[in-house]
Amino acid sequence: MNDSVFEIVEKSSQILKLDFSSIEFAKLAEEQELTEAQIQAIGTIFEHLRQKKIETTIHTLLKMSRLPLKDPKTFDNFDFSVIKGRDAAKLKTLPSLSAIYAHRNLAFIGPAGTGKTHLAQAFGYECCQRGIKTYFIKMSELRDKFTAARRAGKEASVLDGLVRPSCLIIDEVGHCEFDKENTRLFFDLIDRRYNKEGNFNIVFTSNKHPSHWRTNFNEDDALLCALDRIFDDATVFNIKGESFRGKRLETIALQTSRVKAPDSSETPTP
Predict the structure, then answer these.
(1) Which of 121, 138, 192, 252 is most buried, taking the most CB atoms under 10 A from its CB?
(2) pLDDT tens digit sequence for 131-156
(3) Angle between helices 139-152 and 155-163 (to 10 degrees)
(4) What's the gap between Cα 30 and its chain centre?
(5) What's the predicted TM-score (pTM) here?
């Protein structure tokens, strides 16, 4: 059943953060003796403003997320048909974003080029489309952010910024070393998000199985506590197979031919 014009105006007012109910609109319409065409026109205007507000919000969320805006990785442009296996169907449940509402972390583990980052970014992109704040960061960028924060004495504000998004995506875990202090900050981040209220999760990608992550951290106790919280309630997708990259590679064989220079002893023909 379609919403009435009065319901559309009320729902639009909520999105636009206007204190204007369907009852108020109905009373105003009666007081002003508005015709049905005028009421419909007002409903159309409110619906337009609502859609515009939603589009602006999505654009802002995408811009703040650090996800690529040019040629974004989405579930629509991921080829699910190349993923085989008994539990392959579970990948297709990701667009529902149930993991966010269930506070379930996600980890995509596998060799380079098997679609891990695409899936992680697609999850974040879908979050933004639903009005859910998301932040994407590579593990090396996280290390540099922690190091800079320590030097500037801004650890608390940096952690606050990383705890705030509902969906935090950490890409390429295991591609860089974390010293003891940065490992402790990593634990603080995980611990604060573990105790966060509302709808949230963390999405990880890595070439290494989580059991091998400790080789890139220099504080075993802090890391073990972090891993305990990360995988307390999580889904790990182990992806095996060949890289997708280079499938459209075109190789063109070329050869140069040296042009013979004219003999200077020869007299040019007039």
Answers:
(1) 121
(2) 999 999 999 999 999 999 999 999 99
(3) 140
(4) 47
(5) 0.83
